Amino acid sequence: MPLSTLTFSTLAPRYRNEGTALFGLIRNLGSSIGISVVITYPAQRTQINHAAFAGYLTPFSLPLQQAAARLSAGFPPDDMCHAGSHSPASAAAPARPQPGGI
């Protein structure tokens, strides 16, 4: 049952105009407050996470220096490597025949 049906079913017919206006006002206020809360929470969490990561990612951080060196050398950082794509076993695998080749 919709909320508006439930709300107006118990209201006397002579108060329905005022009740409709009040219902719309409360619904708009409630949705505005709800949207504000839903937007504010992720924004605060983003700030908290940024502050936490900023403490670890300094120019003097050894893991950051190593990752930067690997990237500048043309290799992805260790955590970005796909399983098996840089392993010696995949390098020794036979080449697949090309379509239409002899």
Report on the structure:
The chain is rod-shaped. By secondary structure, the chain is mostly helical. Residues 87-91 have low confidence and may be disordered. The chain has four helices and no strands. It is 62% helix and 0% strand. It has one domain.
Q: Main attributes?
A:
62% helix; 102 residues; mainly alpha; 0% strand
Write the layout of secondary structure elements.
Elements lengths: L2 H7 L6 H41 L5 H11 L15 H4 L11
Assign an overall shape. Answer: rod-shaped
**What's the story with the biggest beta sheet?**
none
> What is the overall pLDDT average?
79
Order of helices and strands: HHHH
Helical percent range? Answer: 55-70%
Helical segment tally?
Answer: 4
Total strands: the figure is 0
User: Which radius of gyration do the C-alpha atoms yield?
Assistant: 31 Å
| Uncertain stretches | 87-91
Distance between the termini: 72 Å
Domain count, please report it.
Answer: 1
Assembly state (oligomeric): single chain
Give me the secondary-structure category: mainly alpha
What's the short version?
With 102 residues, this protein is mainly α.
